[in-house]
Design a protein that fits this description.
Length: about 800
């Protein structure tokens, strides 16, 4: 008879919702649920929150702004990132640099929620679940409780709840509960995905361990252990595995230090760590002892090396909808869309660092592949965020219902965190109504649209969804402002010839701009022609749906522009075009082969909010000829289709002037139902702030009574976390501001804030206020160079 282990009695707790996993996705789910009025527990198996982004793993939390201009996630994750960046001295320009102050920011957010209970250092290894026998057979199980063992306290915890969120990264709860899931790559035929392999296999995205090196004030010899991987020559770093940032006094890295198959991401976890240590220390030994620049590294030390692999992929569970590659290339505008993604289809390579015949990622060597995978923002349906056979199990983080290919763009941490907020608030709604995740997400049901409006109210960014809240009094107000600025792209005159200043017309190039007047009489472009004969360039205008559109737009107008030889400067061309007002448009300069080979279009920075440059990418299909022999780009691995699409250029805006003047930053755009750039900037922007504050005023014909106001300021939605250095405060963000109401003919101060760093501010008054006018005054922004004025994306006014 096998002896049974002795166990402590369970310490039992009951909640409305239990979230298992405290990475950014799980934390944002728990915070959203608790803020939504739900008694919530979060169970985290580490001593800090953050998962891959924590100081234990140190993967920079990237997001949608890396793939789309002005595309950053908002809501809770944006709040957390801004809070850390404003108070943390460290810059996270690469992996391996995140510190424990970041962990403290996340922990403080959890501690501040009275309805949220945290169980740290608690590993869930058991699930109590009931079998179900439904007539339609869709639900087979229901989770009753999870069992966790807490390190340090030696407690055995039994946590009961009505609903659960699995944000564990590996899908531990779902696996133990019998939820249907997948592992590895589906075949191309399974979902009709061109980037999928011809045959299914168990290859996954791999795990990475990062490092941190820094320069000290004395020599620091390095003697490696015998078991490291040997890198002794620059030739050992094959296929564009670059050692970047090594010119800095401290640096981290490297994403391509990755291990996947034949290792299993769960079963071989310990072996993966050991294999990664071999390579990380091998790279460090190369820099110290074998690099041609080894003398420069004499005073460098390896300050930190991770002990926990950062996973990219594990189990993926099956929901009522599975997001696939096709959904990444064209936004489906799901009726239950609650989040979005815009990283590229980033799949890395089979074999990882041990595959010496392929790059770490195909895009690094093949332009056709690189252009094809650059998707633009696409929405994610709530029906992908719960198990289709476990009745009360929500899914958050990288385990939700996507194919292996679609995981590529949706797996980055800020994207998963924003989706986590949606899951947490959805769970709160489901519990409030006493319904299952499936019933709540039903596109034709009564719950999904109120949830989406509630997400907007909490600053969660949704594609194509506008504020239609009938309780928002701002929607009925007349809005005026102290001033507003016109659209003005930066002037390229007199700028130095930097790497990206001149973009040659070797392909069609374009500038996307918001048009508001209903007409474009003339456009002027800033060109340089280095040839010795005059040439003609075709100028076209297209109407778009969104600023990021990859497809060709609706043709509006066309004209020919003569470019004299040796010319550098502005050239104007009449268009005399009627346009749809308040729509984005693409101004195109067509490439004309050899005739335009010597013509280039100038760029300059900064890009005005809601604008982006583009260039046309055309492929006949398949990889570049030089790569046709590579196994990683063979038909067995990928089947690149022919395409013609526009790709964003993010290094500046093209030199462009429009007649008549366009005014997309007027006061009315702060109450138009959108709080971020998508079709328009959807932003009020004033002239630079002088001695007097800039203000936005809302007037009603009859008195209204309200108790709280929500504001969304500009915190630079084009910048990723790695572009926000230590002690960062968005320069355009309202620092000092106040809210006033017209009461008995006098402006009465309701709220004042100094030193604000956040985008989303909520003013809750102690008592209702009745008024016919409200004014938001911006007294200062964080920029001290008078570049920026006041900027507000949205104002909401509510009675409740």
């Amino acid at each position: 008879m096998t002896p049974q282990p002795h166990r402590k009695d369970f310490d039992e707790h009951t909640f409305d919702l239990v979230v298992v996993g405290g990475g950014l996705a799980g934390l944002c789910a728990a915070l959203a649920a608790a803020r939504g009025g739900t008694r919530t527990a979060i169970v985290q198996d580490r001593p800090m929150f953050g998962g891959n982004s924590s100081s234990e793993v140190r993967v920079v939390p990237h997001g949608a702004s890396h793939g789309a201009a002005w595309g950053a996630e908002t809501g809770i994750v944006h709040e957390l990132i801004l809070a850390d960046r404003a108070t943390n001295h460290e810059s996270f320009f690469d992996h391996g640099l995140i510190n424990s102050l970041y962990d403290l920011t996340l922990f403080e957010a959890a501690r501040s929620e009275p309805l949220l209970t945290t169980f740290m250092n608690t590993s869930v290894r058991g699930v109590l679940a009931d079998d179900l026998a439904e007539p339609d057979g869709r639900y087979t199980r229901r989770v009753v409780a999870v069992h966790g063992s807490q390190l340090g306290s030696e407690k055995e915890l039994l946590l009961r709840a009505r609903q659960f969120v699995d944000a564990s990264g590996d899908g531990t709860v779902g696996s133990l509960a019998g939820a249907e899931h997948r592992y590895g790559r589906e075949s191309r035929a399974t979902f009709g995905e061109p980037l999928a392999p011809a045959e299914a296999d168990e290859t996954t995205l791999g795990s990475t361990i990062t490092m941190r090196a820094k320069k000290i004030d004395r020599p620091a010899p390095y003697t490696p252990p015998a078991w490291i991987a040997r890198y002794t020559s620059p030739d050992d770093f094959v296929m564009d595995r670059r050692l970047y940032h090594i010119e800095k006094e401290q640096f981290g890295g490297y994403w391509w230090l990755e291990v996947n198959n034949p290792f299993h991401q769960i079963d071989d976890y310990e072996a993966i760590r050991d294999e990664l240590h071999r390579h990380v220390l091998g790279v460090w030994n190369y820099l110290k002892n074998h690099s041609p620049e080894k003398e420069r590294f004499t005073n460098y030390v390896l300050e930190w090396i991770g002990q926990i692999p950062g996973k990219r992929e594990s189990r993926r569970f099956v929901g009522d909808v599975t997001v696939t590659e096709q959904d990444c290339h064209a936004d489906r505008r799901w009726p239950d869309g609650v989040a979005y993604a815009s990283w590229w289809i980033d799949l890395h390579i089979k074999g990882g660092i041990n595959n010496r015949e392929a790059p770490g990622e195909r895009e690094n060597i093949d332009k056709r592949y690189s252009d094809y995978i650059r998707v633009v923002p696409f929405s994610l349906p709530l029906r992908a965020f719960y198990s289709r056979n476990v009745e009360n199990l929500w899914l958050a983080g990288r385990i939700y219902s996507v194919s292996h290919i679609a995981l590529g763009p949706v797996r980055v941490q800020q994207t998963l965190a924003a989706a986590g907020q949606a899951v947490g608030l959805a769970a709160a709604h489901a519990l409030r109504h006493g319904v299952t995740p499936r019933a709540l997400a039903d596109p034709d049901g009564p719950y999904i649209q109120p949830l989406r409006q509630d997400l907007l109210r909490h600053d969660a960014r949704l594609l194509g969804v506008r504020n239609t809240d009938p309780t928002d009094l701002a929607r009925t107000a007349n809005v005026t402002a102290s001033s507003s600025v016109p659209l003005a792209l930066p002037d390229p005159i007199g700028l130095p010839d930097t790497k990206h200043r001149w973009q040659p017309l070797d392909t069609d190039r374009a500038q996307v701009v918001p048009l508001t007047t209903g007409r474009v009489d003339e456009v002027a472009v800033y060109l340089r022609h280095t040839g010795d004969t005059a040439t003609e360039v075709t100028v076209e205008l297209e109407e778009l749906q969104r600023i990021w559109d990859r497809e060709h737009g609706k043709p509006v107008a066309s004209a020919m522009l003569r470019v004299p030889p040796g010319h550098e400067g502005w050239l104007a061309v009449p268009l005399d075009a009627a346009v749809t007002p308040d729509r984005p448009h693409r101004v195109i300069l067509r490439a004309g082969g050899p005739a335009t080979a010597d013509v280039a279009w100038a760029t300059a920075t900064p890009m005005p909010v809601g604008t982006v440059a583009q260039y046309l990418c055309v492929s006949p299909g398949g990889p570049e000829d030089k790569n046709a022999h590579l196994d990683c780009l063979s038909p067995a691995e990928v089947d690149l289709p022919a395409y013609e699409l526009w790709r964003q250029f993010r290094k500046g805006a093209h030199g462009l002037r429009l007649t008549p003047e366009q005014r997309p930053y007027e006061a009315r755009y702060a109450v138009n139902g959108a709080a971020w750039p998508e079709d328009l900037p959807n932003l009020w922007a004033s002239a630079p702030i002088g001695q007097d504050p800039e203000w936005l005023r809302l007037d009603w014909p009859e008195p209204v009574t309200f108790r709280h106001v929500r504001l969304s300021f500009d915190t630079d939605l084009d910048a990723g976390c790695d572009k926000r250095p230590g002690f960062y405060r968005a320069p355009q963000c309202a620092r000092d501001w106040r809210l006033a109401a017209l009461v008995d003919g006098e402006w009465t101060e309701l709220h004042r804030e100094t030193g604000n760093i956040q985008r989303h501010r909520v003013v809750r008054l102690h008592a209702p206020v009745t008024t016919t006018a409200v004014r938001v005054e911006i007294h200062a922004v964080h920029d001290d160079t008078a570049t920026f004025g006041a900027r507000i994306f949205e104002v909401r006014v509510h009675a409740d």
